[in-house]
Specification:
With 83 residues, the protein is mainly alpha-helical. It has one domain. It is built from six helices and no strands. It is globular and about 35 Å long.
Length: 83
Amino acid sequence: MNISQSEIQILLDDNDLNNPLTTSLYARILSSFSWYKILEQLNEKQLHSALSDEVIKKIKSKCLQERFKYARSMLFENEEINR
């Protein structure tokens, strides 16, 4: 399935983790881009969503899953996150 850049932006802006396209998009972003690019492109709310269990479990690499769980714990250790 091909989606346009404007459709991607709408998904990111809506930030709806109940939408399977959004969770897949975040998983793809986490799997494809460097950490610094991710931090540059996503705002805090989007990053919080991207590091949720719903998204992390969609990443195929167990090693990457653990890295993002660790990053989440360091960034949001004092906050409640979707677990």
